[in-house]
Each structure stands twice: as structure tokens, then as C-alpha cells.
Specification:
Arc Repressor Mutant, subunit A, 2 domains, mainly alpha
Length: 179
């Protein structure tokens, strides 16, 4: 995974056009996000089977812990809860996800905040920040600017462009370089 990190490559260039088309067709046929994720996971499993490999899944308990904590857990605490050293956790993430566990936790935490931005019961961004494990609103805004390329309120009418900010190759290079 580390070799693929920070690069933008068409899926067809990696697995070939027929396999890439099969994924696109499976995603198009799926109804709802859960079905799309299941279709993508099934497709990935089939690709690994074709290659004679199975995922080790070593990172799964750490990923699950970070997702359950909405990214607010300290990495050292996650490693300790698994009976691992912090270094082992970092190596597993680098091998299986291609990123550091701290970056993964930041992305999960920011996604937790994004999911609640339009919630009517939220009185302010401070509540969102504290609920997600940020120290204060400034801490949330810093992560938002770094990861999304803008503040939460800037350009809300164009939120469809937010995904492009997360996946823009230059932004990903900066994030993965730790900047």
C-alpha cells in the first residue's frame, strides 16, 4: 500500500479494463451506501482471490477501535488495548492502509463532524468539535482546513466539491507527507 500512497492511477491501469468495468457495474447496481460498500468489498476479495492472496486483516481491530471512537482515541491507547507497541501499529497501517494511524484517526474524526454539520440539534460548531474529541473549535477548524481545503462554512453551497478537495492529488501528497 505504501507504494501506491500519494499517486493517482486509473483502476483499469492496475487491474485491466474488464475487471474495472465489473466494479463499476457492481457499484451501479447496488442500492444505498451499505450495498455499495459490500459490493466494493466483494470485488476486492475476488481480486485478491484471483491473485492468490487473502488480506491478513491485521489492521482490522485497530481500524474498528478508531471508527468506534470516531477517531478520538489516542494512537498509543489503541496500540496498548490491542497488546501492541505503537511502532507495530504504525507498521501494520503502513502495510495494509498505506497511511499512518494518526492520519486515519484525523480523517475518521473529521468525517464524524461532517456527518453532524447539518444536524438541527447542534447549537454550534463548538459542540460538534467537543463531541468529536477536539479540544476546541480552533482545533476542529485547523483539521478541517488541512483535510478539506476550506473552512466548514466557506462555500457550503458547493459542498459537492468537497470530495474533490479530499481526493485532489496535491492535497493527498501533502497529507501523506504529514504537512
Amino acid at each position: 500500500m505504501a507504494a501506491a500512497t500519494g499517486r493517482e492511477t486509473e483502476l483499469a491501469a492496475i487491474v485491466g479494463r474488464p475487471r474495472a468495468r465489473a466494479l463499476v457495474a457492481a457499484l451501479a447496481a447496488a442500492r444505498g451506501d451499505a450495498s455499495r460498500f459490500a459490493a466494493a468489498e466483494d470485488w476486492l476479495d475476488s481480486q485478491l482471490a484471483l491473485a492468490g492472496r487473502r488480506p491478513s486483516g491485521t489492521a482490522r481491530p485497530a481500524v474498528r477501535a478508531l471508527l468506534e471512537a470516531r477517531g478520538a482515541s489516542r494512537i498509543a491507547d489503541v496500540a496498548r488495548a490491542l497488546g501492541w507497541s505503537r511502532r507495530r501499529l504504525e507498521r501494520v497501517f503502513a502495510r495494509e492502509l498505506g497511511i499512518r494511524p494518526k492520519l486515519f484517526a484525523r480523517i475518521v474524526r473529521l468525517n464524524a463532524v461532517l456527518a453532524g454539520l447539518d444536524a438541527a440539534e447542534r447549537a454550534s460548531a463548538v459542540d460538534l468539535a467537543l463531541d468529536a474529541g477536539y479540544f476546541d473549535q480552533a482545533h476542529l477548524l485547523r483539521d478541517f482546513r488541512v483535510l478539506a481545503g476550506r473552512t466548514p462554512r466557506h462555500g457550503r453551497e458547493r459542498d459537492g466539491e468537497l470530495a474533490r478537495n479530499f481526493t485532489h492529488p496535491e492535497r493527498l501528497r501533502l497529507l501523506l507527507a504529514g504537512e
